[in-house]
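[Discussion] Sanity-checking designs against the backbone

I'm trying to build intuition for which residues belong where. Below is a structure token string of 371 positions. I'd appreciate it if someone posts a full sequence so I can compare it with mine line by line.
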């Protein structure tokens, strides 16, 4: 059962507009989050009071509420289960406190009021990774020049907005007096300005410091991908929060392996005698060298698939394969003796191509590779 709006504000049903406003003002000051930090109960009361005031201060809504109770706002148009958010509530303040920022209205908040959290700027850096680092993941120590709050900088409440972070402007329009709250131009919404700062600090009380930031890079990252290291960008002045460090991944070319998604390709060249007689060869993988066997009679274009020897999926779903492409190297020049040998083999039945169904055509292999 939802609490009665009049009960929440501690007033009777016949309360006048002025009484409603006064009651809400009292509640808002008492339960304001700045006065009750980390107090969930106070925050709840603060929100409930705001919701009650939102309805009772509006003649039309009040009339509906008086007639139908909470049902009047059910099924859309009401506040549902979520109630009002803090921004709604604070935007209501310009109205309830009559724009009297600093004139007494907000003094009860100890200089608090509606402050915008100022965030420091983000920093961007690029980090080069070898294919092995991409495949195995790596922790990189990166030197970053970031702005930090200079020790010795002190802040004071902004005079323009009295710490509210916003200023209210009243303009006369044909619809009556309009109040608009805008971000304070002096403190950019922070509510604070610099009081004292050391000589080496900039206008915002910040100075550049070189720091080593450790960045954990997961296996499977892709060239161009951006990782975020929270709060390792530039500090914000005063009580703001630091920006983030954005790390762009740049993948270096590998001398023998080519990446394609999570799969890797390796071009292997086999001499004619090795292709005919069979052999074994050492090849590069991202986890070190591996020796693989080449069967006698291997055909050029054959693809050997080494399962799981590719790049781990960034999403954590398994690993790609390493595809070894066999290229039989045909000699371009021969000695007289060798030439005679091949001449004599021209009519030999062993040298006549007899492709088997297992010797897939190039196109079928390509199809197979991507399946
Ligand atoms: Zn200000």
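Best answer:
Here's mine. Compare freely.
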């Amino acid at each position: 059962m939802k609490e009665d709006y009049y009960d929440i504000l501690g007033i009777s049903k016949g309360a006048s507009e002025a009484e409603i406003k006064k009651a809400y003002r009292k509640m808002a000051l008492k339960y304001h989050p700045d006065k009750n930090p980390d107090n969930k109960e106070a925050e709840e009361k603060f929100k409930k009071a705001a919701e009650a005031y939102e309805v009772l201060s509006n003649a039309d809504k009040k009339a509906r509420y008086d007639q139908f109770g909470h049902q009047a706002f059910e099924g859309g148009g009401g506040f549902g289960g979520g109630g009002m958010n803090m921004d709604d509530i604070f935007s209501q303040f310009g109205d309830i406190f009559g724009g009297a920022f600093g004139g007494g209205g907000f003094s009860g908040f100890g200089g608090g009021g509606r402050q915008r959290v100022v965030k420091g700027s983000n920093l961007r850096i690029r980090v080069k990774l070898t294919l092995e680092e991409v495949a195995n993941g790596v922790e990189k120590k990166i030197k970053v020049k970031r702005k930090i709050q200079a020790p010795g900088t002190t802040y004071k409440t902004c005079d323009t907005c009295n710490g509210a972070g916003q200023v209210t402007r009243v303009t006369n329009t044909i619809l009556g007096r309009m109040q608009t709250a805008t971000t304070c131009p002096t403190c950019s919404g922070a509510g604070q300005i610099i009081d004292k700062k050391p000589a080496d600090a900039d206008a915002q009380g910040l100075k550049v410091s070189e720091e080593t930031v450790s960045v954990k890079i997961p296996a499977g990252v892709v060239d161009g991908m951006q990782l975020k290291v929270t709060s390792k960008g530039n500090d914000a002045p005063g009580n703001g929060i630091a920006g983030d460090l954005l790390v762009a991944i740049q993948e270096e070319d590998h001398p023998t392996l080519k990446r394609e998604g999570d799969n890797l390709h390796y071009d292997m060249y086999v001499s004619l005698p090795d292709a005919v007689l069979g052999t074994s060869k050492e090849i590069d993988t991202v986890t070190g060298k591996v020796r693989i066997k080449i069967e006698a009679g291997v055909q050029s274009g054959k693809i050997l698939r080494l399962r799981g020897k590719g790049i781990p999926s960034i999403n954590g779903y398994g690993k790609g394969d390493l595809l070894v492409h066999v290229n039989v190297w045909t000699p371009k020049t021969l000695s007289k003796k060798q030439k005679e040998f091949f001449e004599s083999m021209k009519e030999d039945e062993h040298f006549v191509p007899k492709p088997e169904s297992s010797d897939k055509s190039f196109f079928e292999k390509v199809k197979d590779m991507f399946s």
